[in-house]
Amino acid sequence: MKKIFGFIGTLLLIIIIWFSFLKPYDHQIEFEVNLPQGSIYHMVLDTNTWENKSINTKHKMLYESIEQTIEINKKPFKLLWEFENIKDTNSTVKLYFKNKNHSISERYKNLFNQTQNLDSLIQISKDLKDKAHKFSELFSIEIQGLDTLSSTAYLYVEHRAKRADKARDMINSNALLFRKNQDSLVVKNGKTFVKVNNWQPKTDSISFRYAFPVKSQNNYPIDQFVKADTLKAQKALKAVFYGNYSISDQAWLAMCHYAKRKDIELELSPVEIYYNNPMLGGDDKTWRTEIYIPVRE
């Protein structure tokens, strides 16, 4: 009997020591979102997500985790977000909290009664989950597997921007490109597209060409802004995105997670082909974009 009580006492002591001093965070919350892992990662980093909250990012590991600090009820807290892919377009979010100045008392208070601090922190996770849900309802992604990107001649205007600003530059280039077609200098031969030359996920910046395909001819009406080139045929991972073209790059993130899971090495130079004319209006959730990310061979 003494041995049993001794074992129980030792076990309780170990639990108390772990709970008081070794447990890295005071609280943990876990939930799922219908967004690619990379999408929810960027949503947490976006200052617009947090409105009037003062959140500072201290450290981040691309698509995997983010460490932040926040002030709750005039007390500094450390937040650790961890993200895990589930089905390429779904992910798990784990949120860990730690009271930076009074961690031990924070833990023991919540053993017996949920504190105002914990209530506030739970609300942060609920707000993020709600925003993620609303965002996920704006689009859908279908990853179709390996395919071939067709070759075509094209005119283009080149841009450098953040990924989120792609649509703005596309709109600004419309007049330059369509004037060539209106003046009968070329014959448009397919759907307008974007060819990304380089995507840097760590900085989320891209260099890209906003383009439309044209029939091949000996000379092209190039000028200071409009250039000509040929898109080469190549093996690529294909997806179909339904939603506004301003957020079609959400599919890139899902495709990268898919490729990682399938052990496919990609060249980070997506091509987006647009099948609807936004000028005609309509429900943008039905706008179709075919997206190809070339496979490294």
Protein topology:
Elements: H1 2-22, E1 27-33, H2 37-45, E2 55-61, E3 65-72, E4 75-85, E5 91-99, H3 103-112, H4 116-136, E6 140-149, E7 152-162, H5 166-182, E8 193-200, E9 205-214, E10 226-231, E11 234-242, H6 250-262, E12 271-274, E13 288-294
Antiparallel strand pairs: 1-5, 2-3, 3-4, 4-5, 6-11, 7-9, 7-10, 8-9, 8-12, 11-13, 12-13
Q: In summary, what is this structure?
A:
Residues 13-22 have low confidence and may be disordered. With 297 residues, this protein is α+β, with helices and mostly antiparallel strands.
Overview of this protein structure:
With 297 residues, this protein is an alpha+beta fold. It folds into 2 domains: 117 residues, Alpha-D-Glucose-1,6-Bisphosphate, Chain A, domain 4, CATH 3.30.530.20; 154 residues, Regulatory factor, effector binding domain (Multidrug-efflux Transporter 1 Regulator Bmrr, Chain A, Alpha-Beta Barrel). It has 6 helices and 13 strands. The strands form 2 sheets. Strands 6-11-13-12-8-9-7-10 form an 8-stranded antiparallel beta sheet. A 5-stranded antiparallel beta sheet has the order 1-5-4-3-2. The longest helix is centred in the first third of the chain and has 21 residues.
